[in-house]
Amino acid sequence: MNRSSPSSFACELDGAIASAGFSSGHRFVVGHWDESPLGPMDDVMWARPDGERVLIVDRPVVADFITSVYRFDAVETRPLSVAMDGAVLVVTTGELRLALRAGRRWPIPLLGLRSQRSLRPIERLVARVVLGVRTSGTSPTGVREWYRASEYRPVVAAEAYLEGRHLGELGRFHEPAGFGFSEPPRRPAIVRVRPRLEDPTGCLEEVLRAGRRGR
After folding, report:
1. Which of 214, 202, 204, 161 is nearest to 13 (CA)?
2. Can you name the CATH fold of 2-213?
């Protein structure tokens, strides 16, 4: 964590983002973070067929942190397991189970060089054309975000069950999920990524301070 200017707060995360949609209309974006200002953490962003956006986390402080960046219609704090073993990612929480299997790795070069702001326009263009995503922008709450990806893997197989009911075949994201400034890749994927968050309001820093006091 660090300050990018006297009036703003900045922090970084490191981990993986997985995304998949299903023919039933359910869409998921899973964050599996090895490093964050709160330590290792997981989250599930769930867009239901009726358009409701739900956040699932296992700790209140994680809910506070993520909702300081994104907006949701409902937030559920409950037991959550996200396990990643090689090419397979499995999510279990309540009556929801999601399993994704990734295909071939596609390394994304020049991660170290992409700390230079001058490369952002090139990175932005490539990501938009190839994956249909934006790599930098401003969140609904005013937090500036920059996502530096180091590896892309397409999801080649997936299953999702809710209360024992199969949620349909794996498919592309056709309807917007509406979680943040960018939609997930059009094709289901697991991406290794290092996001940087810059908050001019200081809300993120206050959330982290409160989280430390609550430990």
Report:
1. 204
2. Acetoacetate decarboxylase-like (2.40.400)
pLDDT digits (tens, 9 = 90+) for 45-79: 999 999 999 999 999 999 999 999 999 999 999 99
- CA dist 146 and 149 (Å) reads 10
The answer to whether the CB of 1 falls within 8 A of the CB of 10 is yes
pTM: 0.86
- Give the torsion sign (CA, 198, 40, 152, 70): negative
* β-pairing verdict for 96-102 and 165-166: unpaired
Distance CA(43)–CA(13), nearest Å, equals 13
Cα 9 to Cα 1: distance, rounded to the nearest angstrom: 8
Q: Rounded distance, CA 8 to CA 3, Å?
A: 6
